[in-house]
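[job 0412] stage=fold_complex status=start
inputs:
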Amino acid sequence: MTLDGLRPGQTGIIKRLDPNHPSLIRLAEMGMINGQSVTLIRRAPLGEPIKVRVMNYDLCIRKSEARAIHVDLIEEVVNA
Amino acid sequence: MTPSQAVLAAPVNKTKKSPVLALVGNPNTGKTTVFNALCGARQKVGNYPGVTVEKKSGTIKLDSGTVELVDLPGLYSLNPLSPDEQVATDGILAHLPGMAEPDLLIFVLDVTNLKRNLYLLSQVAETGRRMLVIATMTDLLQSEGIETDLQRLEKSLALPVLQLTGKDSSQIDLIRKAIATTLSQDHQRQNYLTYPEPINEALLSIESKFPDLSRFEATTLLFDSQKLTTDAGTEEATSFANQHASELTTAGHELSPPSLATLRYAWAEEVVKSCEKREGQAQTISRKIDRVLTHRVFGLIIFAAIMFLTFQSIYTWAVPFMDLIEWGTGSLSAVVSSWLAAYPMGQSIVVDGMIAGVGSVIIFVPQIVILFLFVAVLEDSGYLARAAFLMDKLLGWTGLNGRAFIPMLSSFACAVPGIMAARVMPDPKARMTTILVSPLMSCSARLPIYILFISAFIEPQFGPAWAAVTLFGMHIIGLVLALPIAWILNRGVLKTPDMPFILELPAYRIPKPFNVGYRAFEAGKKFTIRAGTVIFAFSIIIWALSYFPRPEHVADEVRASAPTAEESVMNNLIAAAYLEQSYLGRSGKAIQPIFAPLGFDWKITVGILGAFPAREVILSTLGIIYQIGEADEESADLKSTMLAETWPDGRPIFTPLVAIVLMIFFALCSQCMSTLITVQRELNSWKWAAFLFFYMTGLAYVVSLGVYQSGRALGWG
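[job 0412] stage=fold_complex status=done
writing structure:
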């Protein structure tokens, strides 16, 4: 599954990034690297963009970026 | 040899007058606070040649003399994505025109966000420059449930680490001493990362063959063969590195920018482990605030309220200051008029040309200052990022993103500060689109025109409800057209690349009053100085066109035709006659056929031409043409004269339809010299300023034509 598929409060561990995504490098530089855990905090009122938490800070990305981040869901619900 | 290699060979340049320091760090780390604490008011704002990024620099007094400190824009990585990041990267690598090679980098490190800050630090350290670290936000550690041992951090980094919280003078003294010490000491290069052995060997091999390359350049060449071939090292080094890279890849090692990022973060993780303890998931204040401010219902309500407050304040708080400026220019005009009474032409050029022209510009200063106070508070508090989060979807389809909302909204007060606020857009093309559509928002200068025509032609016939609807419609038409135009500009004209929208939502902070005030002050000062000069010249041109030629016989003929008129009436008649036969008046008559399909006569046409410096000037021009002297939106004389105006065949010129068409024309046209000059300044291009003028005028014409002709077809006057 991809980061976009998480429900608010769910956390995933990053498995891989889509190697052809145009923002691949910046996503990695902002902390989206393999093995890192990332939590989907909430979606904007119109469904997009989404707010995620990675490396203890909050980041806003669009669905198109979230779909490039493949994650394994872990059963840990974090209070948004 | 690139400049960054030169500094490695000779770390201290003895011929330089004073050492140059650069302030480097992630956005939202309190860099501006550090800069202001170190430099105080000893700072100036300029521009880097060729780019519109602001160059902020100041001086620090050390015991040994003064040093220059350049505040580079915040950046996340030395692989730049925005003009700001490009400038910061070039500054660090000493490729930046207009800035000397930095002798020392002061790295601002937000300890509450240590890991991601260390990512950039690892890149910057590899450039081989001298570095000193200032840890910020240390006062927030406790409330966020973090314990950080700065001494251990210093040991892990092998760099001096100092602390700065606010304006603590003992901390600032320590920083000054550390700067002096670091500048005087020999410089030790830091290589933090541990690479798998074959990759490490390849790096050492590249470095021994090309000793001028910094570690950052060597790793970039090895891990990202496409990226830096143009600005790092020679072609020879690139092909040598590529050879190593392909061997390593064949042997199964992953060499890509993300794999390099993984190595950097592995190092950062080690450093964090050595000095930081975190209590699980602390429920920080920021996260609690965010639950309300980005809520799908309350978030939007609060956003609307904040925007309304901003907008309202620009309208209302600016009024006394604008009145004061108006009073000042009015008094000055009166005084100068009496001095120059003996020289009518000199009087006119100074009063009607210079004072009126410059007055029409500085009248915007209060609004600019107030808007920038709000923008600074919203940005420094962290709210601006949330506003972009909330609004992104609404603007996304046009090729813009959430950040464009602030400049567009600001433009409802005045396009000038709105255009300046478009600096928040990271992509240069998206910024250009934002600048080109923002002036479509209905600014406060359009209001006097709406009020005059609505109160003269709509309210008396259709009642106050329709008057309000018309006023609302005039404010909404620009916004409704701006979005599809942004779409056309982005997709069709500028080919704006699809922008990633990867935006940090920083923790909320209380803005520092000095930072906020200084920013507003700078914005006002810059506008006054920059725009004042060109607008001054344009004002004189427009004045000359409405003044010349001025043959004596025109006045004589007026006097002869109405010998019994009172002096004031006579003066108004003469002024109208002169305006009619001036170059401006003649041009108005000559091009009136173009405006005839919109229902405008030559007098309205002259009003439109004369309003080139500022929309509201049409009121005073119409006042002169209709022979009633000084006029504004409340002039009863002007209203009654307009109602009585007829075509030669006796039909009234001003019908409600013509009034609406004229309002639409002024809602969409670009009759504002300040806006055009600001666009020219911001985009550093007369071409785009001209484009703005022609596209908005064309749009105004086409929409007005459509409305007038449809209205006629439906039988509305």
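[job 0412] summary: The beta strands of chain B are 20-25, 43-47, 54-62, 65-71, 104-110, 131-136, 146-148, 161-163, 276-278, 503-505.
[job 0412] exit 0
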